[in-house]
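Appendix B, Record 12. Input sequence as logged:
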Amino acid sequence: MTDRDQSSNAPPRNLPRSIGAFFAGFVAVVVLSLATDEVLHLLGVYPPWGEPMNDVGDNLLALAYRCAYGVMGSYIAARLAPRSPMLHAMILGIVGFVVSLGGVVISLTHPGLGPLWYPIAIVLTAIPNAWLGGVLHRAWHRSS
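Logged structural output:
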């Protein structure tokens, strides 16, 4: 370690806490998304499970709350991070980007699941949502 590193006021690195921050944000996104899906299926807003969701409005609704949950999950990862909150938020966004690419591949290989634009939109919004979650954390916790 250099003298500059030792004089820094940054908290020490804590890998278990960093991993926990990431997983807390990830689980929040997944659980909130699936729970909202289930509620909307039960209420009849979405077609029954197993049927394609072709309605543009339904897909826009799903995209909207997935974006909101992506921002929220990244905020959680940043908030719980022992240091470098924006990095934690962006790592969550990158993982979301990669996982979402799987949705595009599945949609390409299994036509009829729904419109292709939807999984592509999920991919394209993953990084901006993560960035926004990190920015919100920075704005709300600037003084601490």
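The helical segments are 3-7, 15-42, 56-80, 85-109, 117-140.
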